[in-house]
């Protein structure tokens, strides 16, 4: 029997298999990154619930805390829940060259939500001040800003605070109004942090509208 010899004319080589198209496949997209700012209010403990609910909506969450916020809830708690280190210091030692951590977060953010937001932080944002990691990030990011105030009713209704709130709204900040409830001072009034569900709903809407 004569040996079989391959001939390109009679036996053309098979074409290489084409890569399957990704169109129509269920390819998971990267999670969107939400920055949660926590300020010095008794309502700071609710940041833990905000993190959980944001994660349930498919967001990655990084937390920024003011020095006063750390007096109400431990950074370790929020780091454990978010799975990421909490930033509360402008110079944490994690800097890579000139890329500061808060600048990196500002670029990555799909939204920045501040909950709770104190009168002090609202005033700084309205004036364009940047003297801590949270306000620096707020100025550096072009992501939507969502603010959920929490404070005493008399403070919230003060003309200076109302003017600062209006100024930020005109700049495009989304507002989650505080509700009437029992305040830390023992009275019932407006200034109670809005429901966590309403805060997260505002974040979701802001990201979708981006």
Textual characterization of the structure:
The strands form two sheets. The protein has a five-stranded parallel β-sheet with strand order 2-1-3-4-5, sandwiched between helices. Strands 6-7 form a two-stranded antiparallel ribbon. Helix 3 (101-108) crosses helix 5. The chain contains eight helices and seven strands, in the order βαβααβααβααβββα. Strand 6 and strand 7 form a beta hairpin. The longest helix has 14 residues, at 196-209. The chain has helices spanning 47-56, 75-82, 101-108, 119-127, 133-140, 153-156, 159-170, 196-209; strands spanning 33-38, 60-65, 109-117, 145-149, 174-175, 179-182, 188-192.
Compact description:
With 210 residues, this protein is of the alpha/beta class.
Task: Outline the fold blueprint.
Layout: E1 33-38, H1 47-56, E2 60-65, H2 75-82, H3 101-108, E3 109-117, H4 119-127, H5 133-140, E4 145-149, H6 153-156, H7 159-170, E5 174-175, E6 179-182, E7 188-192, H8 196-209
Parallel strand pairs: 1-2, 1-3, 3-4, 4-5
Antiparallel strand pairs: 6-7
Notable characteristics:
210 residues, five-stranded parallel sheet, alpha/beta
Q: Going across the major beta sheet, what is the strand order?
A: 2-1-3-4-5
Globally, the shape reads globular
Low-confidence stretches: 1-28
Instruction: Report the β-strand fraction as a percent range.
Output: 15-25%
Number of strands: 7
Determine the mean pLDDT. Answer: 86
The first-to-last residue Cα distance is 74 Å
In DSSP terms (H or I, runs of 4 or more residues), the helix count works out at 8
- Largest sheet, described in full? 5 strands, parallel
- What radius of gyration results from the CA coordinates? 25 Å
Classification by helices and strands:
alpha/beta
Proportion of helical residues: 25-40%
Helices and strands, in order, run as: EHEHHEHHEHHEEEH
